[in-house]
Design goal:
- The chain has 168 residues and is mostly helical.
- The chain has one domain.
- Helix content is 71%, strand content 8%.
- It contains five helices and four strands; from the N terminus they run αβββααβαα.
- A two-stranded parallel ribbon has the order 1-4. A two-stranded antiparallel sheet has the order 2-3.
- Strand 2 and strand 3 form a beta hairpin.
- Helix 1 runs antiparallel to helix 2 and helix 3 packs antiparallel against helix 4.
- The longest helix has 29 residues.
- The radius of gyration is 17 Å and the shape is globular.
Length: 168
């Protein structure tokens, strides 16, 4: 059981690194190829998500999808924590990333992103709980999730390697 817990922790760290790479560095290689964008939007679902009068649903959905694994990992790693504590952690990660974007000048800090990120985390927690109620065996569920996460982490590392090699 300790091995699986360690694997989950390692995969969680890889996920957090990927999250920072996606949100702060916009998947760019080299990392220095970023503009000096500093803006804050405190009105949910306004301005930054509206292009040519249309709401950019794809960005909203992407934020939700990117943060679902955080909710899943919270459920795997902090089984004894309440839903509120898991949710608080998801919120804090999202908030720190949004503030970091502003401080580093690498993106627009947006309340909508925080809302959709937290929604993604909530859906991840709910998904894990649904799997748990269906299969009643957290060890098997965690093993299944770790297999999928290992495949995803490997694919991400290969992508990173390809991007790095393409810029040499």
């Amino acid at each position: 059981m300790e091995k699986k817990s360690n694997l989950t922790k390692i995969l969680f760290i890889i996920y957090l690194i990927a999250l920072v790479w996606i949100i702060l560095f916009k998947l760019s290689i080299p990392f220095t190829d970023m503009g000096n964008l500093r803006s804050i939007n405190l009105i949910p679902f306004k301005e930054s998500l509206i292009v040519n009068g249309n709401l950019q649903i794809d960005e909203i959905l992407m934020n939700i999808v990117i943060f679902m694994p955080l909710g899943i990992y919270m459920s795997m790693l902090f089984k004894n924590h309440t839903f509120k504590k898991k949710l608080l952690f998801v919120f804090l990660i999202s908030f720190v990333l949004e503030v970091s974007q502003f401080i580093l000048g690498v993106g627009a800090s947006d309340i909508t992103d925080i809302i959709t990120n937290v929604l993604g985390g909530i859906l991840g927690i709910i998904l894990y709980n649904i799997l748990l109620s269906l299969f009643k065996d957290s060890k098997k569920i965690n093993k299944f999730i770790n297999v999928i996460a290992t495949i995803g982490a490997t694919a991400m590392l290969i992508l990173l390697l390809v991007l790095v090699l393409a810029n040499i």
